[in-house]
Amino acid sequence: MPAENRSEQQAQDAKAILGIQKDLLSVPTLSLAGQAITPADLEKLVQSRIDSVNAIAAAKVKWTAAVQAYRALDKQVTPILRGLRTYLVNTYGPTSTVLADFGFSPAKTVVKTPEVKVLAAKKSVATRKARNTLGKKQKKNITGATVSPAAPATSSTAPTPAAPTAPATPHS
């Protein structure tokens, strides 16, 4: 029955070695998987798998430490190289060949074809229409809704209100 993981496999292999040493040392050769093998060779073979698992674990620890060291160094070096590139562009210009001496390439300018520009403008208009987006001038023309007073119904029997009279002058 195969083990589920390396540590279980390693424990099973250690038990197999103990079993070989306890019960099979008196057997001259074993016929296993179509091969004739001595108990001593079988013990060495199983031990080699245990050693291999141990080597894997050690290598994984070492690799993990190396990756962490790289990431820490990368966080330090990346901004410095960006600053170097910026310095070179500011000093020698964005199209200078000096950039290539440092392994940097000049910034690529994308030239849009007229067809792409027309398509982009159509998409922009469609998006503004779909989202009901307005520009500054369009927003300026929008004011709050003003409700005009309803005109009173005119009937021949309704008296018209009298105009207000001027206030009396104060006596001094």
Summarize the structure.
The protein is mainly alpha-helical and 172 residues long. The chain is built from 5 helices and 2 strands; from the N terminus they run αββαααα.
What would your notes on this structure say?
The protein is mostly helical and 172 residues long. It has a domain of 96 residues. 58% of the residues lie in helices and 3% in strands. The chain is built from 5 helices and 2 strands. The protein has a two-stranded antiparallel ribbon with strand order 1-2. A hairpin with a 2-residue loop joins strand 1 and strand 2. Helix 1 runs antiparallel to helix 2. The protein is elongated and about 135 Å long.
Topology:
Blueprint: H1 6-24, E1 30-32, E2 35-37, H2 39-92, H3 98-101, H4 114-131, H5 136-140
Antiparallel strand pairs: 1-2
Helix pairs in contact: 1-2
Descriptive tags:
172 residues, mainly alpha, two-stranded antiparallel sheet, 5 helices, 2 strands, elongated
Shape descriptor reads elongated
**Number of DSSP-assigned strands:** 2
In whole angstroms, how far apart are the ends? Answer: 121 Å
Count of runs of 4 or more consecutive helical residues = 5
- Per DSSP, what share of the residues sits in E-state strands of 2 or more residues? under 5%
Largest sheet: 2 strands, antiparallel
Strand order of the largest sheet: 1-2
Which residues sit in consecutive blocks of at least 5 with pLDDT less than 50? none
Whole-number average pLDDT?
85
Order of helices and strands: HEEHHHH
Secondary structural class: mainly alpha
Helix content: 55-70%
